[in-house]
Amino acid sequence: MPNYTTIPEMIQHVVNTYTNSGALNYKYRGQWKSLSSEKFNETIRRLALGLRALGVKQNEGFAIISPPSPQWIMIDLAIMLNRAISVPMFANVSSKHFAFQKADSDINYIFINDVNQLDENIAVALTDFKKVITLENSYSEKNAISFQTLLALGDKLSKQEPQLFATLREQVLPEDIATIIYTSGSTGTPKGVEITHKNLISQIKATQQRFPLDPRKDKILTCLPLAHVFERMVAYFYISTGTPLFFADDIKKVGDLLREIKPTAITLVPRLLEKVYAKMSNRIDEQTPLKRKLMANAFERAINKVPGSNTLLDKLYDKLIYSKLRTALGGNLQMLIVGGSALSESMEHFFSNIGFNLYQGYGLTESSPVLAVNYPGNVRYRTVGKIFPGVEVKIASDNEILARGPNIMNGYHNNQQATEEVITEDGWLHTGDLGSLDEEGYLSITGRKKEVFKTSNGKYVSPVPIEQKLCKSPLIDMAAIIGENHRFVSCLLFPDYENLDAIREHRGYSDMSNSEFLNSNEVYDEIKKTVDAVNAHLSSWETIKKYKFVKHPITIETGELTPTMKLRRHVVEEKFKHIIDDFYK
Q: What is this structure's pTM?
C-alpha cells in the first residue's frame, strides 16, 4: 500500500508512478480534450502558487460552484495545498443556503464556471468576495480573475521562489481540514461536515482494496456532482489508481456517453438508475406486438427473480433482450457501484438479472462516506455489503448503526453541540440509520430513526420502502408518505413529467394535455391498482387510505428535493399542506 498521508502526497505518488497521456478527459465545446498526468500535476502547481500570490491563507474558506471537470479537481487540490478549506457547493444551491454556507465557513474566495449559470441572487452576491475565479471569463467585476490569469500569477511566483511548491506540499498535514461539505438539509438547516486529509486517504486506500483497477484496461465515466462526498472521494480513488477518467458534460446524456466511451465502471445514485430503467421500459411500447410481449415478460422476470440462478428461459431472454440492454449502456460495464440512498429491491433485481455486476454500498457525509459495500466476490442481495477496511461498526440496543474509524469526520463546523450529539466521547458516530449485521458480516439497513414516524394511534410506519414500491409505476416519479401524528396514512404522488409525453403517445392519448391525461379514468384506474397492490403487502396501520396526484413538479431548484434527489419532507409537507389538510378533514 502506498505510503502517502495527504491528498497532495497522493497526487505526487500518481505522477511518480503512472504516465498517462489521457489521464483526465472532458468535453469542451462539444469536443473531447485530454490532460496527461504530467499536465495535470503541472497545472495544480501553477494554480496553487497562483492562489498563494493572491493571498489565500490557511483555514480560509474557498467555495467551488462548477460542473464536474478536471478544472474542478485541480482548483480543489490547489486550495488544499494552501491549507485553505475547500467548500464545494451544488450548482443549483439555493441563495439562502449559499448565504448561510458563506458566512458559516468564512468564505472569501470562489471558483465558478460561468456566472450566467448561477442563480441571479448568487450572481449579485459575488461582489462580496475578495476574488472570483471564473473559467469562462463571464464575470467582469473588479474582484474577477480568470483561470488563465491565475496560472500566470503562479508562473511568476514560481520564478521568484522555485522551491515553494514542494514546501507547500510538505506543510499539509493529515489532520488538516481538507474540505467542509454541507449536508443536504433534508431535515432543516445544513451542517458543515469537516473532513480531513486523514479521513479521505483512509477511504481511498480502503477502496483500492475492495475495487482493484487496471489503468491499462479500465476507464471510468464520472457523472455525479463533485460536491457530493461520494463522487468526490471515488474521483480521487480513480485518480490514485492512474485509471483514465472521463467527465460527463451533462448528466442527461449519460446513456449517450456510456455508448461513446464504453467505460468499465461508473458510480451512480439510485435515482439515476431508476431513470435508466424508465427509459429502457418505455421502449417496450414501441415494439411490434410479438416483441412487446417478449420484452414485457423478460422485464417482469428480471424485476421479480432473485439473482443467482439461471434457467434455460433466462439464457433465452439474455440472448434476445438483456444483451441488447447491456449494449445500450456501452457493453463494457464491469462494475456498477451504487450509493447515496437506498436502492429498491426491484432495481437491484433488474440490473443484476440483466447481467450487470451491481455493488451497493452505504455511508454518510459524516463518514467520508463509505461504511460498508458489496464488492467483487462478496455480494449478498438486499444488504449494503461488508464493513469497509479500517471501519468499525456495531448495532446499538435500539438497532441504530454506530460507526468508528479513521474516516469519521472531525466534527460539524462551528457547531460543537451538534457534534457531541452524534459522536460519543469514545469516537462512535450515531448514523441515525437502523440496521443489522448477519453472521458473515453483511450489513442490512432496516430503516431510519428520523424517518420512522408514529401515527396518532401509536403505530410506527417506515415510509421509504412504501414510497419505493409506489415508484415502480412508470407514471410516478416521487411519492411522499404522510401520517405522523395523524390517524391514518396518506400519500402525495408526483408524476414523472420527464416520461409523461412518451407514455401519453404510446397509449394513444397524444391529443390530451398532461393535465387531462393525469385526470383521465385510465390513469385513475392504474394508480388505484398500484396503490391497492402496495397496500396488499402492508400491515393495516401502514396502508394508504387517501392519495392524490400533485401536478406541481418537484425539483431541486424549487427546494422539494435535495441535490442528491431525496425528498425534503419538511418542505414537501409545508408546500402541500392544503392538500394534506384535506386528507384529514
A: 0.84
